[in-house]
Model the fold of this input.
Amino acid sequence: MDYAYCGKSGLQLPIISLGLWHNFGFINDYKEAREMIIRAFEKGVTHFDLANNYGPPPGSAESNFGKILQENLASHRDEMIISSKAGHLMWDGPYGDGSSRKYLMASINQSLKRTGLEYFDIFYSHRYDPKTPVEETMQALVDIVHQGKALYVGISKYPPLQARQAMNYLKERDVPCLIFQDKYSMLHRKPEEEILDLADEFGSGFIAFSPLAQGVLTDKYLNGIPVDSRAAEPTGFLQKGQVTTALVEKVKRLNDLAKQRGQTMAEMALAWALRDNRVTSLIVGARNTDQLNKNLQVLQNLFFTPDELLQIDEILDGATLG
Done:
């Protein structure tokens, strides 16, 4: 595994991190989840990305991770970076959603209890909440660090204006924003407009989620929509209508280029997202250990020629996926 310094901090992250957004809840196969976490750690994936609402049901990914950690990896806690977040709907009532101090403080206490941890290495504000002043949310993060409940803090999915306000507030209180988390892939390049520059300006790292565009940037949809795929599910972030014929044709051409590079489509997509040195790490998900192993193959070829990058841009021709 390769590691990269997170912005201007002294903390290194593996360039591939494991996300527990899907496939680690109570409805999933616990044995498979355990095997994926252990295998990831054995392969040098030291960063595990959680959130209070990951499951389903919400909270169950943290509970399962905590159990796996206690039973299998407890002696390795200091070799790990464990992150969690709060900001989306977690429980009913006026205090179970948003970015208020009340919600963040209650959330981190609950998350620490579910995981059995004394502290998180990184704790994020999971989203910008327009109904809560940025200052209130950031002060809660500052206090979370001062209380020893997290070593570092970050922000996720903030618009550029509010991200700058948040980073300034944290910097002025000597609790700098360690890292910015956002969606980033060949099919979602919006962070290139402002966010990557902003993170660099403040000395923050950048970590990308959905670098495979919910599986579209793999060979999964090249011959139709499999019944067990995310696009086949009636609800979710990827809908069948988004996987258009035109988009699939572009991915087929990208897949041909990947073959020329000696890679799978997924490996090339991950390598592409790491081509910018401002990108610290990618959060990948996995259904099983085989898929996890395949994602880690990206480490064997991270280099692109200028011509290859030009070909990718020409094939995509501005195509996006949300």
About this structure: The chain has ten helices and ten strands. The longest strand covers residues 150-156. The chain has a mean pLDDT of 94.
